[in-house]
Amino acid sequence: MKHTIGVAGLAVMGENLVLNMASKGFSVAVYNRTYEKTERFLSGRAEGKEITGFQEIKDFVQSLESPRKILMMLKAGNPVDQFIEQLLPHLEKGDIVIDGGNSNYHDTIRRQNYLEEKGLRFIGTGVSGGEEGALKGPSIMPGGSLEAWPFIEPVFTAAAAKVEDGSSCCAWMGPGGAGHFVKMVHNGIEYGDMQLICEAYHFMKVILQMSPDEIHSVFVRWNEGELSSYLIEITADITAYLDTDGNPLVDKILDAAGQKGTGKWTVNAALDFGVPLSLISESVFGRCLSSFKDLRVAASEQIQGKVSAFEGNKEEILKDLGSALYGAKIISYTQGFGLLQAASEELGWDLNYADIARIWRGGCIIRSVFLDRIADAYTKDMKLANMLLDPYFNTTVTGAQASLRRVIVAAVMAGVPMPCHSAGINYLDGLRTAYLPANLLQAQRDYFGAHMYERIDKARGEWFHTNWTGTGGDTTSTAYSK
After folding, report:
1. Among 176, 199, 227, which residue terminates a domain?
2. What is the DSSP letter of 65?
3. In the prediction, which pLDDT does 285 show?
4. Cα separation of 76 and 87, whole Å?
5. Is the pTM of this model over 0.85?
6. Which is the catalytic residue, given 69, 183, 205, 329?
7. Within this chain, do residues 21 and 74 fall inside the same structural domain, yes or no?
8. How confident is the model over 227-246, as pLDDT tens digits?
């Protein structure tokens, strides 16, 4: 019997995806660099299921039905390239290689071109949902060789999460690195969501002096309304979890956050495409700052600041905090989808933003009821220039901005950092400001570098230079807009 699909890499995500696909009726061949791990899997969680393990790559490949479909669940970077080279001698024209790890989209584009030159097909697919999602149904974001999609679609669609209307949280993203780019932006948005929630938690804990039980109750209440999401849900669970001594476990966890790099990639991509990603960028830098624990402790003892205790109405500011969190969340997603749009336009991917929002509704880490609103916005207007121009988001953020301002003022006066909430209101104010001081910036650039400027009384695209000192001459540098 030939197997439907092969999976290489039996770490936590690989194992759980194999079990997921087998539970949907697909026969799965598995391979791992260390065969001992394969043996443990086969005699443990995989026992009695349509899962076969192989010690040699040649046997693993030959066990698959044609065209062969091989899903790599490997650490991003060189391990993926190395395994592809090991596969090549055993593959035939038309076979399909799939990278299901968190690879950089540039690598995915390169690998697709490389394999297509050899008559093979390549898919780079984002998979989100963590350990539980991989087992029960993740959000899956494939892109690459379109000719490969009909062969992969039945497996991915069945394995992906399902939402209430029965639809699968999997859709074709586009050519090249589109799938991995969408997953990268998903992770950037995830960074923003997490930091915003942490800032709200910090506000309650430090400024409002709320007990763990009180904070837990707020997150439970928020999860019943418009903020309902997986991350709010698990935050409610975390804030209620007690250590063996009966005290909150979260208070005993070191406040130094880690990261795997996809947030940084998202920020780099925003710089590459000239997209303002300020809120998500602040979430990445927030993790960086948290990692300097020893420095922060030393600075806390040496750098003094004048702060004021909160003296307002606690219930009113709590309502503001919920509204501010929702407004900032909308702004964060606005920036994320703005990055998707910029990349799609420049690289010719033709991304479907409504589909992206729909497949994020279930399985993935940022799943929430709020994503239905985004899907609706892009369904009504596929060319929506900015999410905040949609009537629902326009009205909601306009209504939330007073709460955002009050919360940020309270935090500033108390000396409590809220970088992502602050970045949110700054982006909103920048976006709604028809006249920004970039005219002075352009004059400065022309003064010291002869970079030229445009004039408001002339057509766009017509460039001018001024000899500001009288000694600079008329030679100009190259004008650029990003």
Report:
1. 176
2. P
3. 96
4. 17
5. yes
6. 183
7. yes
8. 999 999 999 999 999 999 99
